[in-house]
Specification:
The chain is α+β, with helices and mostly antiparallel strands. It contains 21 helices and 16 strands. A hairpin with a 5-residue loop joins strand 1 and strand 2.
Length: about 600
């Protein structure tokens, strides 16, 4: 029979320890020390308490815990001396059914990993959904992490041990993160739509108004209808808008959502998590036949990443009344204008001005988003409260020099465009680091028609500058652009530069941030407040509505804009419950 928190809290120390037996491999001391901090208000609180116990135990105890774990498909499996928990996990991942080739490969990886780090490779083989990773993914993770730094690998092993313990704890309590699994499944299904050239390689790329993008819009629309939204439509810029009406006609709406486009070869959860979490909440309201005193408007924004056209946030800009008509004349890499792409998609350009929202009809805007960084992952925290979204400015530019023979042009006679940009990159990196919390990135770099034996005559580049305040961002931009001019003058080259996006910093509104904080507290999740270095649709809606964001921990050190981007069904489940609680607060406040 599953145990309950009430039973655990009321049990004697020995009985309680027996209830938690087997969570951490041959290491009951973690549960024992955690139990000294009873009572626990939630499973989330118990899980985090155990992570704190291990954090405080020190490096020697942590390495001892790692070494208490068996190798994957190792000697203990062959000799059938695994614990019952490990046997179950390795069986679900198919490791007990390896082919001779797979078994030999894993054995070699085990040997190489142990030789390098001095402890066994640890991976939560039941995976982010809790139902088991495919063997190919296990081997790929093994191969990737074999090249990691020992300090990083130590922490990554511990994080995976905590994930193993989380799943085992769920089993003991008979808990299944159904809301989180539903959201996880929706994201996996949506990720089946990808563009040619990427889809064949199992990569995810969905840029504005491509066939894959339009397929995503249709699937989200169908999903909203299935969840019970009262109105579902695709608007004039491709946003998918679902409305769940309030109990009282004429009441205001909560606006929420995020984007469904992706970067090229990106991750499955960036943006999309913020669409599906509120959809799951509406689905439950509809299934229960409940209406709230406030309405819910979920918007799947059609574009946020700025990949096909240089018009980042065009979808949310249409809602704030800041869509720029000259964007329609921009051309993509194939020479297709945005206007033409919209017309081919059946969108009515003339209706774009009518998309502007009246703030009087809304309470505010909230957004759930995967963190896209390592902070929550390193702190073993599932959720984070966003205090502000950093201001940013983006440019695309080109340095023009003189192409010449690489063998016959002396170093002091060169007008090397690529070298000038290289110098700029190093300066931008150095200058941003001076602030501590500013960042500068050159993410695109190209020498057109470059040749191994030709001094580059042109070099195209992008520049992305971000900082927590507008003043700090502008100071960074001023210094970097001044240095670009100085570099070009000194090197005898010239440059062009176009500003493609400027977004103001967007501090969270205190009242809305407090609602997220109350929701996390109610779940037993420690409060952690943090800024967002990434830009989000919330920073555009901030121009007309109060806003606040909730971050969800990412796996694999929080990596994002990368196929390794991931989160767990358990963390997504907490995000759904936090959103449920926020809606409950709004309903209570409206009475």
């Amino acid at each position: 029979m599953p145990i309950t928190l009430d039973q655990l809290n009321a049990a004697s120390p020995s009985e309680a320890l027996q209830m938690l037996d087997g969570l951490y491999e041959h290491s009951s001391w973690i549960a024992e020390r955690a139990l000294a901090q009873r009572p626990f208000a939630s499973l989330a609180q118990l899980k985090h308490t155990m992570t704190r116990v291990l954090d405080a135990a020190g490096r020697e105890a942590q390495i001892g815990l790692i070494r208490a774990h068996p190798e994957l498909a190792g000697k203990a499996m062959v000799s059938k001396t695994l614990t019952a928990e490990s046997t179950n996990e390795q069986t679900k991942a198919g490791l007990t059914q390896c082919t001779p080739q797979e078994f030999a490969r894993i054995q070699q990886l085990n040997a190489d990993y142990n030789a390098k780090f001095g402890w066994p490779f640890i991976l939560a083989v039941r995976g982010p959904r809790g139902t088991g990773l495919h063997k190919a993914k296990i081997i790929a993770a093994f191969e990737r992490r074999l090249h990691g730094h020992p300090d990083f690998e130590l922490q990554e092993c511990l994080r995976n041990i905590h994930r193993i313990a989380e799943i085992r704890l769920n089993d003991k309590f008979g808990f299944e993160p159904l809301d989180g699994q539903r959201v996880w499944d929706w994201q996996e299904a949506l990720a089946q739509h990808s563009e040619p050239g990427y889809a064949e390689n199992g990569q995810l790329t969905v840029t504005y108004l491509t066939d894959a993008h339009r397929a995503c819009a249709r699937e989200i629309s169908d999903g909203m209808r299935a969840c019970g939204f009262d109105e579902v439509a695709i608007d004039a810029v491709g946003n998918v808008v679902g409305r769940y009406h309030p109990a009282i006609p004429g009441a205001r709406y909560l606006m929420t959502g995020s984007h469904y486009d992706t970067v090229r070869n990106g991750g499955r959860y960036d943006g999309r998590l913020g669409i599906f979490v509120p959809m799951a909440c509406v689905q439950k309201l509809h299934a229960d036949g409940r209406r709230l005193p406030v309405g819910i408007e979920v918007i799947a924004f059609a574009e946020e990443e700025g990949q096909r056209y240089k018009a980042t946030f065009l979808a949310s800009s249409a809602l704030t009344g800041h869509f720029k008509p000259d964007w329609l004349d921009q051309k993509d890499a194939e020479g297709v204008t945005m206007r033409t792409a919209m017309q081919q998609a059946g969108l009515r350009v003339e209706e774009i001005p009518g998309l502007q929202r009246d703030p009087a009809h809304y309470l505010g805007f909230v957004e759930v988003h995967i963190e896209q960084g390592p902070v929550l992952n390193e702190l073993n925290l599932p959720l984070g409260i966003v205090t502000s979204i950093n201001g940013s400015v983006r440019y695309v530019g080109e340095v023009l020099g003189m192409a010449s023979h690489a063998g016959t042009t002396p170093m002091d006679r060169r007008r090397d465009a690529a070298a000038a940009v290289a110098e700029l990159i190093l300066y931008a990196e150095e200058r941003a680091a001076q602030d501590g919390d500013s960042v500068a990135t050159v993410g695109m770099l190209q020498v057109p028609n470059g040749s191994i034996n030709v001094v580059p005559g042109a070099c195209r580049f992008s520049l992305d500058l971000r900082a927590p305040t507008n003043a700090q961002r502008d100071a960074l931009a001023r210094d970097v652009l001044d240095r670009l001019q100085e570099i070009c003058t000194r090197r005898g080259v010239r440059h062009t530069l176009e500003e493609t996006m400027r977004a103001a910093a967007a501090p969270s509104t205190a009242a809305w941030q407090a609602r997220w904080e109350r929701a996390c507290t109610a779940l037993g999740v420690p409060l952690y407040r943090m800024p967002s270095g990434a830009g989000h649709d919330a920073m555009k809606l901030h121009e007309i509505l109060p806003q606040a964001m909730l971050f969800v921990r990412g796996e694999n050190s929080g990596i994002s804009h990368n196929p390794l981007e991931s989160s767990t069904a358990d963390d997504m489940d907490l995000a759904v419950k936090a959103f449920d609680h926020l809606l409950l607060q709004l309903a209570t406040e409206s009475l």
